[in-house]
Amino acid sequence: MKKSIDTIKMLGVEAINKANSGHPGIVLGAAPMAYTLFTRHLVVNPQVDKWTNRDWFVLAAGHGSVLLYSLLHLSGFDLNIDDLRNFRQVVSITPGHPESHLTPGVDVTTGPLGQGIATAVGLALAETQLAAKYNTKKYPIYNHYTYVICGDGDLQEGVTQEAISLAGHWKLNKLIVLFDSNDVQLDNMVNVAQSENIGNRFKAANWNYLFVKDGNDVEEIDQAIIKAKKSDKPTLIEVKTIIGYGATKQGTPAVHGAPLGADIDTIRKMLKWNYKPFEVPNEVYDDFDVNVKQRGINKHDKWLKMYQGFCKENPALGKELDDAVYGNFNFNPQDLRDLKPIKAQATRISSGAILDRLSNMIPSLIGGSADLSGSTKAKGADGVYSVENRKGRNLAYGVREFAMAAINNGICLHRGLTPFASGFFVFADYMKPAIRLSSLMEIPVIYVLSHDSIAVGGDGPTHQPIEQLAMLRSQPNLNVFRPADFNETLGAYHTALQTKHTPSVILITRQDLPELEHSNVEMVKKGAYQVYGEDNNNDVVLLATGSEVSMAIAVAQKLEHDKKIKVKVVSMPCWELLEQQDAEYKTKLLEPNALIASIELGTTFGWERYTSNKGLNFGINTFGQSGPFQDVLEYFGFNVENIVNAIVNFKYQIIKS
Amino acid sequence: MKKSIDTIKMLGVEAINKANSGHPGIVLGAAPMAYTLFTRHLVVNPQVDKWTNRDWFVLAAGHGSVLLYSLLHLSGFDLNIDDLRNFRQVVSITPGHPESHLTPGVDVTTGPLGQGIATAVGLALAETQLAAKYNTKKYPIYNHYTYVICGDGDLQEGVTQEAISLAGHWKLNKLIVLFDSNDVQLDNMVNVAQSENIGNRFKAANWNYLFVKDGNDVEEIDQAIIKAKKSDKPTLIEVKTIIGYGATKQGTPAVHGAPLGADIDTIRKMLKWNYKPFEVPNEVYDDFDVNVKQRGINKHDKWLKMYQGFCKENPALGKELDDAVYGNFNFNPQDLRDLKPIKAQATRISSGAILDRLSNMIPSLIGGSADLSGSTKAKGADGVYSVENRKGRNLAYGVREFAMAAINNGICLHRGLTPFASGFFVFADYMKPAIRLSSLMEIPVIYVLSHDSIAVGGDGPTHQPIEQLAMLRSQPNLNVFRPADFNETLGAYHTALQTKHTPSVILITRQDLPELEHSNVEMVKKGAYQVYGEDNNNDVVLLATGSEVSMAIAVAQKLEHDKKIKVKVVSMPCWELLEQQDAEYKTKLLEPNALIASIELGTTFGWERYTSNKGLNFGINTFGQSGPFQDVLEYFGFNVENIVNAIVNFKYQIIKS
């Protein structure tokens, strides 16, 4: 046992030394608790690392990545000793912070503090819902724990605070958080920035709180985990540890994030460690083989038999679950055409109707909002999720936007559920760090964000998005949809649900929009397509999205009628998908020789990609105004006449020059 | 008293009805507590609303704006009855959510939930530091309270949770939060999304917790505030209220955010209110005149005498304080030239040296980081701020990025202190909602964000900013500086400290950068300027920022030497300031007839504004890689040779076509 723990430590600090980069403090301090968890509790099968009913493990303190990599290697995951040697090297599977889409056995991408715990709350929630939906007395196919190791920094983050409030409220008793309580942060001792009573704080949020006084004592840690598993509440186990235990600078911030260098010999001496760097004693492999790998394989074998029994006895449910886990949503958008409104309707209303119907068609669809369902119209089915109603698919997040997004990441990672999160578009700001992780983890969560422009009206500039469009469009691996009417809204949902490795944002309006004559559900997949005018040889091409597409058509009609200018209008519901089209499609659509102008009720930042830098981008680059939305638009002079005049003037300037 | 409270209510619901938009629930529920606070405690002078030693009031629940506007009107602030009639109308001073830069008597812009309390923590902190620095036994010139009215939603937000942890730690006992506890949220009753014990939660964070069982009982509220003022801790007063008290749908979510319409008559009847809409009984004006206005004027008069006495007896301190309050930082950058390094140095090191020197020169400079000072090198002077060291100008925020930014907003709003906040650039994501409020409130806070590109290296994609450049540049009223070396870093600080109504972000590197031959402290103010090549008739103009300027010069030299192509290099430390230059400056600098290319180690999103849409933007549009930074750059092929080749190929294409 000692030798196994020592191996974890030595692999970690050797890898850090070799990379000359990394965080030895947590490796030396938290190795005993990680060892205890892996060898005595965590149920995983290293050969089938995506087994959905495994115990999930989140290293919230992601800077301790090499601790996790060492454990994964010893446990028999597909991560060999050379991968450890390549710690923090380009294209290795052992990057500086764990990345779930990259490395077998890494369940969640962590590093941005606080989000690990919130994401674990999502994993634990998913387990309760899937258990409620699919477990039978004979076949309890969902029955796993979610474990977390976190540090002080995680607990200081607001997103964690939001998430623990929900975890306590939801009584997610199979969530067990081991808190590596070492009293040290990067800049100072923890007590310089904090004097909160952690135990009382968690108890106030309806958590079970346990204390382990010696973080080197495997038995004490083990007993605490055993106790936690019996709790009817989520549990925080505060484990007192010494950061960088054994190093000369143990117990100080100096050992947090700098390689040990020559001081590694101090550790070697203390541990009486006589092996070569990256050498693992056979008895240590044996320990992990028996206590993690074989134990896990046995459990998985039993589970597989149970699962097969379940599928045999409940073929319909088995199929349903399979579709949910693999994300097979082959619905036909035609089946929702009857929802098409006969008169002008806000896309938030269209979105709500579509979501309601989809909730009927797709049993795995789950979601809700940060206390704004009444406004966004995005609401899950089957009642509010709660202790009493584990099958409820409407998630009442309260005003906790960031936790909502991070929890949804966890739900999505778990597989078996298809989460959406909704709120006002301007509050995408609050969710941004979690949206980034959705993209980085390559998971297809859906964000439904309404009130998508200054047309919000009376709520004023604090509630009117401007720059959020550029904020999201500039993020890698994110599809940002801004549909123009019902058809495009349906197209956005259809595309989002068919997308496997990219999250989607669907931006919808508060105000009514007319149904366009030539809007097209299927063409949303192309990212942009023609909705008005002739195919080619146009004088002007107008690019618009969402609520401004109908305006662009009005502009086009006026230009044609009053000025005999030939105009095409392109609806561009998703830039990112347009970028994926071939050059021929783009050139034909965008007509590089025409005068190209964009019309969008938000920042013009970024539009020059399509319009060049001639300045013909109609948008709003300042904060908004509080007022009835028509007045707000008039205040900014954002109307058909002004746009027509600007284009005409510009065209004549060009002709003159 | 009853009539005064009824007036507040009626003005509020009438204004909401007239606007046909707004939130009557809080007006009817919280009017008694707001009345009690204003008439019995809050010390303000409506004639000198920017008096820095007034009691500050933050309506964290900003959707209750009309409650605040009614109180300000009755108290004699420059907000007349027509302003109330214009509630939620374009260019009114009574927008949907309170805006501090717009409306006399509005201390903080609120609406985005959670930030109000965090900002109030900053106000309360500022009071303690200014008191410690300037108060004498004879002249206690800083001695005010900071009051907040918040709702359930505020308390659910993570940023509030972060902020209360700090407020308790810092024992900000003159911070008093009235919690409008009405058990109702927009979507549901509060208990659907929350079951936390609020009292215990605040006690765990070292707060004083008081409970008022009847929110209509002015005496009970009054007694609680009296008690709170005597506490040695910050106080939360939970006041039980009935949302929409008196309306047919009182006590339900339906009354939260929709105008009462005809139901206003139910209120009129209950209150026996026989006045016309917007009519205020004279005795109510009298009540406020005596109990708010005259009381405040008297207190202000006394204070003014005290302040004059203070300035007379302590002229140096008086001058120092005056400079601090009015932001007079007329330092000469020449005085910092000795800090210029003789060899390559990371701009985070330059920034740290500059900040340290500035801390000596500017006594009001205060700041710190979210537990990353060791990495960002941004640290305030005079030790860590604490109960024992109220003069400490180093703020140890712990890992609480969002609260840091929101608290700094409060410190800045207070005036008298000049706050900076630091962290890793990628975690600007966590601060984004507060950065937006800095811009909207038009306050000159400074953000010092290091590790500003994938050159972070080993920490990998979770810690490597990509899209953050576009996120911030697209935000209105924000100057984003990315200095290329020491000179430009100094120029950025100099410009930021001379800017009165715009926040600044200064982006600095982890890796060493060479000092440029032609970098210029003063030219940073222009936003962009030439650092290499001939003034005009260039074949190619290279635009670059920060760490890529020296690379651009290397590219230019190679193009000239190998290909005889004439190249100019423009360093663009601040796009926003370039946009403010006249057309002549821009045209001369950017040479529209040349081939223009951008080089920047982040998203290319937005660069087409300067380079047109021909695709010659060298940057990184995917997530990064973990590895030594040179390897990461090579992985992306981001090197001089590849850029040279791409430009040459592109140029020949053009020549051929």
Q: What distinguishing features does this structure have?
A:
homodimer, 657 residues, alpha/beta, 6-stranded parallel β-sheet, 5-stranded parallel β-sheet, 24 helices, 18 strands, 43% helix, elongated
Question: Can you tell me about this structure?
Answer:
- The structure is a homodimer of 657-residue chains.
- The first copy, chain A, has 657 residues and is of the alpha/beta class.
- The longest helix of chain A has 32 residues, at 282-313.
- The model of chain A has no long low-confidence stretch (mean pLDDT 96).
- The first copy, chain A, is built from 24 helices and 18 strands.
- Chains A and B meet through helix 6, helix 7, helix 8, helix 14 and helix 16 of A and helix 6, helix 7, helix 8, helix 14 and helix 16 of B.
